[in-house]
Amino acid sequence: MAFGSRPAGTGKHRGSSRLSKKTAGYAGIAAIATTGVVGSLAAPAFAADNHSSSAPENGLGAVVVAEDLAGDIQDQAESQQRAAEHAAAKAQAEADAKQKAAEAKRLAEAKAKAEREAAERAAREEERKRLNTFVSPLDDSYVSTQYKAGGGMWSSGSHTGIDFHAASGTSVQAVGFGTVVEAGWGGAYGNNVVIKHNDGTFTQYGHLSSLNVSVGQQVTPGQQIGLSGSTGNSSGPHLHFEARTGSQYGSDIDPIAYLRSHGVSL
């Protein structure tokens, strides 16, 4: 046997290479970053050599790096969570504000509509009242001859209207809204005016000394249509007033009842 020779399989055990130790260290760091289990760093690659060379390659360095990485990940996750919660709260606040604005707009529109409809109803009612307003044909007067009074002065044998006491030249007014259908000489009625009213009835004003309206003219309650007199078949100045269901002679109705039915007190 030659000097210096050794039996096969004997001799000093060779240490792990630097590459193997580094690879094992990186594997331990990855394991901590992924699983958070520190114990996994006790890998055989580190146990194989009790003479590790430097601090960054041992388990303690891996733990520090892994803890820092995990803390950064946690901070980032919490920051993202806070940002998401803030964005959600902002979106909810904006949605609530839009809903409140829409509701306020709806209520305002409903209120405006109700007020407009109320105003329209009031205007229609006012117009209805205005159109149905009636007045006496003479102010401060009284009936001197009643409806259907008998006597030879009337061709029908009775009075077809009523006579209002009036001095010559007294203002005679339309009793209600309507259209003049006759204005001029009317035979026994003298100068006369006939008005058709909105309800389809007619009124006649006779023995006028002068006229202030013409056929086709629209008149309103209280509007002067002429002056009282004594023209035609008359015994003296007065106003002959008739109410009729038609424009022609013979369709007369009780003038006092007619005026009272339209709210005129006599």
Q: Specify the overall morphology.
A: rod-shaped
Low-confidence stretches: 1-56
Radius of gyration (Å): 58 Å
Largest sheet: 10 strands, antiparallel
The proportion of strand residues reads 15-25%
Region (Disordered): 1-20, 106-128
Biased composition (Basic residues): 11-20
Domain M23ase beta-sheet core: 158-248
Protein name: M23 family metallopeptidase
Topology:
Blueprint: H1 18-35, H2 44-47, H3 59-131, E1 143-145, E2 162-165, E3 171-173, E4 178-185, E5 191-197, E6 202-211, E7 218-219, E8 224-228, E9 238-244, E10 252-253, H4 255-261
Antiparallel strand pairs: 1-2, 2-9, 3-8, 4-5, 4-7, 5-6, 6-8, 6-9, 9-10
Helix pairs in contact: 1-3
Give a description of the structure.
The protein has helices at 18-35, 44-47, 59-131, 255-261, and strands spanning 143-145, 162-165, 171-173, 178-185, 191-197, 202-211, 218-219, 224-228, 238-244, 252-253. With 266 residues, the protein is α+β, with helices and mostly antiparallel strands. Strands 1, 2, 3, 4, 5, 6, 7, 8, 9 and 10 form a ten-stranded antiparallel β-sheet that branches.
Task: Describe this structure in a few short sentences.
The chain is of the alpha+beta class and 266 residues long. The chain has helices spanning 18-35, 44-47, 59-131, 255-261, and strands at residues 143-145, 162-165, 171-173, 178-185, 191-197, 202-211, 218-219, 224-228, 238-244, 252-253. It has four helices and ten strands, in the order αααββββββββββα.
